[in-house]
Design goal:
The chain is an alpha+beta fold. The protein has 13 helices and 29 strands. The longest helix is centred in the middle third of the chain and has 24 residues. The structure holds adenosine-5'-triphosphate.
Length: 643
């Protein structure tokens, strides 16, 4: 097995000849593939080779043109107006304004190509129907909705003033009308943005039992997608719309789509895409894997939250390639089957963890687009993420009656939500306050980009109409109201290769380098590593026989994929030859660039570092053996040895 790395064809790109080294030669750097997710869970992944014996490069020909893409139009129904369910719930007053939402078209992408643009967090309120257990307890409906923006509640005991809140949208979630309107008006436009290379987040917040999981469709059955009617819930509908959009895009772009799915349970991040065997063995996918290691990957390595120039990401989480909404839904279902849930007085299937389902797109302009007669402008690389988040519900012990394990889970849930509230508070406190306490919990660290960072964000505040929960509902509505003042800084992720290298170089130039040696070692001789937490920079420290190395983590640039390849020998055919092919057994989302003496020259190591990245047309696609061989012969560095 080896790590196969090459670069994608980009317009005007030249093979990296690495001329005129000013700094150290190839013997003074190491590149290691990080955050590797295995495509083969059952067999251990073994990686061979350092710089000298493994890299292979595949440079695809072609210098073609392609056009700007457009997200596919999404048909939606009109918003709910002036109607309430006989069965339900909140009273709905006639709409103050009517907006046509019949067709959602993508926003012209040119508007967003340059710097960051401010984007306020949007908030929708979703009111679920009254449930039987609430009616039986004598609850009355205490919410009045005045679509599209207002919700009012009567005064609380002893008070005289009614409560009035204004949001981007308010929805009565009775039957499917609320779902249609929520999706069409607020979620579908976000999906369109994701297809244009912007990050987006949909976050469901609210009291326990208020309908977050239901509204998000987190537990939806994938078979819904085969039915005649539209699937219910934000996640299934977003996936369907996303893949419809991708189908259009694929005329001009190669797209790789990956899913990650984690839960935060008692401030511990767990991978929900681990296999049943791994679950049984208490296994978490490895935190990172190093190129050159010849050892079986360690088990039980945690998932770490890391930052790079593109924002926060989860290192060590399993990334699963998906090619359809059905694939993505199947993973959602698989993850949900191991999510921690429990019963209490307010919900017989209460989520005891926050879950974050993320779909990542990597889009690379095709060298030979299938569409014709379209303009030739448009970014070469785009990458984006859609986070779909179903938070655990805030809860009060007197309502839930939770005891024992469930009680302590409730405390942890509230703690995480409090930290989230503090972040929202800090972000909306006006100009004086500088510190935003993202680091107070894993939830807030993961949400750093979604709240105050590079993401277009929608919070769906879920509430019950029950008068028995009115006080708690007012709390939720206040929380959500505050979130509306958060201003994110949105930027299209259309960085080209040159820009990626330049920003990586500036990071590397800051690194201290303290040791010298003459060659490339088996990387497993270097490690244990430890993370040095320095303001804003992601620096790792490693030791080689008592000497110090410093490394910087670099994201795999847009449009690239980094794979660990295993050579597959096939049965001899009638020619008598046994052909071989390379198959991806693991992929990495970042690599670590190790340095140990002097600063690299611009023409030196970083370009070569990127040479190590393997672009595949589609994740996990086989790489023909001949191509790997040919690339090795043209690009491989001479072997170097340790002193
Ligand atoms: N729009 C809706 N129509 C009908 N029933 C609903 C709706 N929304 C929620 N429910 C019902 O309300 C109950 C609680 O919903 P759900 O589990 O989604 O709440 P939750 O906010 O995710 O709770 P928790 O935080 O405890 O996990 C479920 O029985 C669900 O079926």
């Amino acid at each position: 097995m080896g790590v196969c790395c090459s670069r994608p064809p980009i317009e005007g790109d030249q093979p990296q000849a690495l001329p005129g080294r000013e700094g150290p030669g190839p013997d003074k750097t190491l590149h290691t593939a990080d955050s590797i997710s295995s495509n083969k869970s059952s067999s251990p992944i073994r990686v061979k080779a350092g710089l000298s014996d493994s890299p292979s490069f595949k440079v695809q020909p072609g210098n073609g043109r392609s056009s700007l893409f457009k997200a596919s139009p999404v048909k939606t129904t009109s918003p709910v107006k002036g109607q309430s369910s006989p069965k339900r719930s909140a009273k709905v007053m006639p709409s103050e304004e009517s907006e046509s939402t019949d067709e959602i078209t993508s926003v012209p992408s040119e508007q967003f190509t340059a710097a960051f643009s401010p984007s306020a967090v949007k908030v929708a309120v979703a009111v679920r129907p009254m449930l039987e257990f609430e009616s039986l307890k004598g609850a009355t409906d205490c919410l009045k909705l005045k679509p599209p923006h207002l919700v009012t509640l009567p005064p609380l005991r002893g008070g005289t003033e009614e409560y009035r809140f204004e949001y981007d949208r308010v929805y009565d979630m009775v039957e499917t009308r609320g779902d249609d309107a929520l999706f069409g008006e607020l979620v579908a436009p976000l999906v369109a943005r994701v297809l244009q290379g912007f990050n987006a987040t949909v976050l469901a917040y609210g009291q326990t039992g208020s309908g977050k999981t239901y509204s998000m469709g987190s537990t939806a059955d994938p078979q819904q997608l085969n039915g005649r009617s539209k699937p219910y819930g934000v996640i299934p509908r977003a996936l369907v719309t996303l893949f419809e959009g991708l189908q259009q895009l694929q005329a001009d772009y190669d797209v790789a789509t990956k899913v990650t799915f984690v839960e935060i349970y008692q401030d511990d991040i767990r991978d929900l895409l681990r296999t049943p065997a791994e679950t049984a063995a208490g296994f978490q996918p490895q935190a990172r894997m190093v190129l050159g290691s010849t050892e079986t990957l360690p088990k039980e390595r945690g998932i770490n939250i890391r930052e790079n120039s593109e924002g926060t990401f989860l290192d060590g989480v399993r990334e699963m390639p998906v090619r359809s909404a059905m694939d993505a839904m199947t993973l959602l279902q698989r993850g949900n089957s191991i999510r921690v849930v429990g019963a209490h007085n307010m919900n017989e299937r209460s989520s005891r963890s926050h879950v974050i389902y993320t779909i990542q797109l990597n889009m690379r302009k095709k060298s030979q687009p299938r569409s014709s007669g379209r303009p030739t402008s448009g970014p070469a690389f785009l990458r984006s993420k859609l986070h779909l988040i179903d938070l655990a519900g805030s809860e009060r012990q007197k309502d839930t009656g939770a005891t024992g394990q469930s009680f302590s889970e409730g405390i942890q849930i509230n703690k995480g939500l409090l930290a989230l509230g503090n972040v929202i508070g800090a972000l909306t406190e006006g100009k004086g306050r500088k510190h935003v306490p993202y680091r107070d919990s894993k939830l807030t660290r993961i949400l750093q980009d979604s709240l105050g960072g590079n993401s277009e964000t929608l919070m769906v505040a879920c509430v019950t109409p029950s008068s028995l929960s009115q006080e708690h509902t007012i709390g939720t509505l206040r929380y959500a109201s505050r979130a509306r003042s958060i201003k994110n800084q949105l930027r299209r992720n259309d960085q080209d290769l040159k820009a990626a290298m330049t920003s990586a170089l500036s990071t590397i130039h800051l690194l201290p380098c303290t040791i010298q040696h003459n060659g490339v070692a088996n990387v497993n001789e270097y490690f244990l590593t430890s993370h040095i937490d320095q303001a804003g920079s992601n620096i790792l420290e490693a030791t080689l026989r008592g000497r110090q190395l410093y490394g910087a983590q670099l994201p795999v640039p847009p449009g690239y994929e980094c794979h660990v390849l295993e050579r597959q020998q096939q049965p001899p055919q009638h020619t008598g030859e046994a052909p071989a092919s390379w198959q991806s057994t693991a992929s990495a989302s970042s690599i670590t660039y190790w340095k140990h003496d002097i600063h690299p020259a611009k023409t030196d190591d970083i370009p070569r570092c990127y040479e190590w990245l393997k672009l595949s047309e589609q994740i996990a696609a086989d790489v023909p053996w001949q191509e790997v061989e040919a690339a090795v012969h043209t690009s491989q560095e001479p072997a170097a040895t340790l002193p």
